[in-house]
Amino acid sequence: MYRHQLLDCHSRIKPYVHRTPVLTSRLLNEMAGAKLFFKCENFQRMGAYKMRGATNAILLLSDKERANGVVTHSSGNFAQALSLAAQSLNVKAHIVMPSNAPEVKKVAVSQYGGNIVVCEPTIEAREAKAYKIAKETGATFIHPSNDSNVIIGQGTAAMELLEDYPGLDYIFAPIGGGGLIAGTALAAHYFGDNCKVVGGEPYEADDAYRSFHSGRIESNLTTNTIADGLKTVLGDKTFPIIKKYVHDIIRVTEEEIIIAMRLIWERLKIIVEPSSAVALAALIREKENYHNQQIGIIISGGNVDLNQLPF
Predict the structure, then answer these.
(1) What is the fold of 2-47+151-308?
(2) How far apart are the first and last CA of the chain?
(3) Is 52 within 8 Å of 109 (Cβ atoms)?
(4) Is the pLDDT of residue 80 over 90?
(5) Alpha-carbon Rg of the chain, whole angstroms?
(6) What residue segments make up the domains of the chain, in order of their start?
(7) How far apart are CA 202 and CA 208, in angstroms?
(8) CA 154/CA 52 separation, integer angstroms
(9) CB 3.0-4.6 Å disulfide test: which of 96, 205, 218, 260 passes with 223?
(10) What is the b/e burial string over 175-206, where b = at least 16 CB atoms within 10 angstroms of the residue's CB?
(11) What is the C-alpha to C-alpha distance for residues 84 and 49, in angstroms, rounded to an integer?
């Protein structure tokens, strides 16, 4: 089932998304003791992989649903993704954003035509406001990660990576709400050759790591991490896929995230946001377990506030 969904999705979204490049670095290979292949979704439209899932979700709506618009809640990248995908398909998008969302992301949402509604910076406030808008306008609610069509869309990045490099032993991806890693794990399972998926997650927001080991969805007491895209928690659609198809989850410190982010900027010469660096940080932390392997790394996005750089 998932195999056909991924193939159909890839064909469906192709006219609306970029096929992003894959970069390598001899120096990073030497540091990691492995061959690394970076799938650069920071070059995706709106600057992150989330364009894929947002586009797929809107394309699968009926004409009537599209006429009523869409609504989501997001602190940044999915807000931008749904706004741009909706604009590309001539659909109205209502975007609930917490008051503490990065200014750079609010500006981008406005530029992409999203109608921003500000709320208190709690998940409860975000959800309540989004459901209120859906009820009042008839807009379809699309969850940033815990949505089957979104998950399948996000998996197309790893599909492309495996088309370019079919011999990968592992793919590393960051974990926030779990949409990217769930989609990546499905793609690796159906299109890889015994390719395993490993997640990277900050210690400061390690609900997925704890959920993975306890077997039930855990929450975060704090989310004091620089990786602002990874502060969300797993859902009932992402978690079962992660539990079944993800090989391991590695936690990293804030210092390790900053070091990895700087390495990517310096060595690959590309702009990435902190959340993107978490996957490389996870690999470097446990590199002795991945010696001489061929490893794909999903660079999830590049929407960083240049006034708030950690180095």
Answers:
(1) Rossmann fold (3.40.50)
(2) 45
(3) no
(4) yes
(5) 18
(6) 2-47+151-308, 51-141
(7) 10
(8) 6
(9) 205
(10) bbbbbbbbbbbbbbbbbbeebbbbbbbbebbb
(11) 13
Count of all residues that appear for the chain in the document? 311
Q: pTM (2 decimals)?
A: 0.96
Token readout for 306 is 């240049």
Architecture per CATH, 51-141:
3-Layer(aba) Sandwich (3.40)
Place of tokens 């500006």: 107
Q: Is the pLDDT of residue 26 over 90?
A: yes
In the chain, the amino acid numbered 143 is H
| Mean pLDDT along residues 84-88 | 97
Residue 262 has a pLDDT of 98
- Residue 285 · residue 279 · CB < 8 Å: no
Strand partners, 82: none
- Any idea which of 121-125, 152-156, 276-280 has the lowest mean pLDDT? 121-125
Three-state secondary structure of 107-169: HHHHHCCCEEEEECCCHHHHHHHHHHHHHHHCCEECCCCCCHHHHHHHHHHHHHHHHHCCCCC
The mean of the pLDDT values for the chain is 96
What's the helix, strand, coil split of the chain in %, to 5? 55, 15, 30
* C-alpha distances out from residue 305 to 107, 155, 226, 274, 309, Å: 11, 26, 12, 10, 7
Please enumerate in sequence order all residues whose Cβ is within 8 A of that of 107, keeping only pairs 6 or more positions apart, or say none.
Answer: none
